[in-house]
Amino acid sequence: MISIRYIFFVLLLFVGQSLFSQIFNGQVKYETGENAIGVYVFNINQNTHAHTDENGRFVINEIIKGDTLRFSQIGYETKMVVFQNYEEPLLVKLNVKAALLDEVVIKPTLDALNVITAIDINSRPVASSQEILRQVPGLFIGQHAGGGKAEQIFLRGFDIDHGTDIAISVDEIPVNMVSHAHGQGYADLHFLIPETIDNIDFGKGPYYAEQGNFNTAAYVSFNTKEKIEDSKIKFELGQFNTKRLVALVDVLDEEEAGFDFYSAFEYISTDGYFESPQNFERINIFNKFSKQISDREKINLTLSHFTSSWDASGQIPVRAVEQNLITRFGAIDDTEGGNTSRTNVVLKHKKFLSDNTYIDNNFYFSRYDFELYSNFTFFLDDPINGDQIRQKENRNLFGLKSVLNHNFKISHIDVDFKAGVQFRKDKSKDNELSHTANRTDIIERIRLGSIDETNLGGFVNGSFTLDKFTLFTGLRYDFFNFHYNDELSTQFSRQTLNKAIISPKASLLYAHSRNLQLYLKGGKGFHSNDTRVVVAETDQKTLPAAYGFDAGFIWKPHPHIFINSAYWFLYSEQEFVYVGDAGIVEPSGASRRKGVDLSFRYQPEKYILFDLDANYTIARTNLDEPINNYIPLAPDFTLMSGIQMNHKSGLQGGIQVQHLRNRPANEDNSIVAEGYTVADLNLAYEKSNVRIGFQIKNVFNTEWNEAQFATESRLQNEIEPVEELHFTPGTPFFLNTMIEFKF
Q1: Whole-model pTM above 0.85?
Q2: Which of 273, 413, 428, 499 is the most buried (most CB within 10 A)?
Q3: Could you tell me if 153 and 132 are in contact, meaning their C-beta atoms sit under 8 angstroms apart?
Q4: For residue 471, what pLDDT is reported?
């Protein structure tokens, strides 16, 4: 029988806790002095939790003296603090360390993909801006124009070309170029220096109200560091006369005054592995200034400049190699190539209006220049001069984004509310397509005009968390104004068109336990069409929508194992194919894609990480006939896997494998783009302030084709044209060495 004394003791304990427990505020910072955002704060004694907000602050309920608080975040040391005093503000500082899988706790609001990326980016070495996008699980890229042209992107059964169905940004400035001289959504990320990246935020599918144009297959948002821990200089030297110099300098670090300013510089040059030297050069200059005006207000100013020039060998036809006219690394027209530059100004302002309300303001401006020479068909249309074309433009891009964030409680429901407006204006002057020869002579101007495109968007988004459930709902509105002035017309011709689209979104997450989460996502996205097309062909869809659905789970069957898998479906109202040499966009009808994504991470020891990302897709156009409905170059199976070691002794190394299966190159699958499996190796050693190492691309010297297209072309000695596979050979065995000094 329970004694009266025991009952009295339990009641006293309960009443005492109710009387003496209070609500307490605190703040978490990183060792660099920055506010720590999204830190998980757990009261072990009371089994209550909280998260730090954008100002690094947290509010914990039901806390009494003697309670132990655990502060944890991926990539930082977990800290235990015994609470003692209500009167003194609690300030906790977290130190950087290697990201560990066993620290991942599945919470209602956990974004599985970004957790994976946070772990990967600290484990895998990234040596170039081309490799940055490979940090997104399941994303493949291909380069086919001398290294200076934006990469071709593959994801979820999409040949995204250079960015048509993926929204890419850096520090809130859009990377995708609308109505670009080379293709809609062209996304050149080469102005981003890999060493300046702080984190990558991304999501697959059209489920995010804050994302607008081009967010159908996915979005990827890069954020650069506000400050650097150490100044450093890095030298790289590789085969094919390859050189790279990177310097990051901490110019000003006044933590007490709230000032921080650092600069970064990158120089790259290479001849490349083709028989005709690429003569590739790139220069990047990056400067970032931060000022903490007060505890509630902060500004960031970023100034950057990028310039690049190169020669290229282009895609070559299979028959030219088989007939021994050229080698795999030869060229039909080695006068291809180009140059481009971009200057960015980004001003970010964040201000807390109250403890649970803040506003983010972002203003940006870009000056962009582009000139590209290509020859896809050789002598098909002009047997005398050849079919070389020039695509050229000069662009001013400016805009703003303002977002209000407010969190509050409704009874037992935690609510995060977000509302924002976005404005973007593109003014592209002398957007040109011309028929040229030898990169010097203009034979004929095919298109020449000025583009003025405006996008005004607004969105609301709310997340509602109750116990183990979190519901995300969002609504987005976009308005577009298209203007085109045809400068080849004998009379003044200014064409204009207005269009708008509404995009609803919704997601439901269920955290069954600390080891299992289930989720459903649904939403509508879109990508805009080229201004020159929509004003001329008003019967075509200007803003074709995409409707998506995801059903998946996150599972930790073991502290050192992380699994994320999803079944997904995406329906697109209209596919478009850009015909570069004609300067037109051809509609190819609606399409449907469905597939399964799998991401697996295993960390048997603190210093070893095994990763695997596999994606299977069925992609078809919605034709009534069950034949001729393949989507050209849509990948149906991709796999990336590897193992990476980062030992406390300073030894680092690993191997990564990429596999892309054979895929159709045309609608009836009569021409097949060959798949490949390529492995890369890296090894480095770090001691004190010095790091040395090397990287080998294609360690087994596999013969593979990086870019492939079904193209009708004619060689100079041919009477009739031939349609077959054209390709750019992938990198052969390539050794690159590195030495880095910190100071």
Answers
A1: yes
A2: 428
A3: no
A4: 95
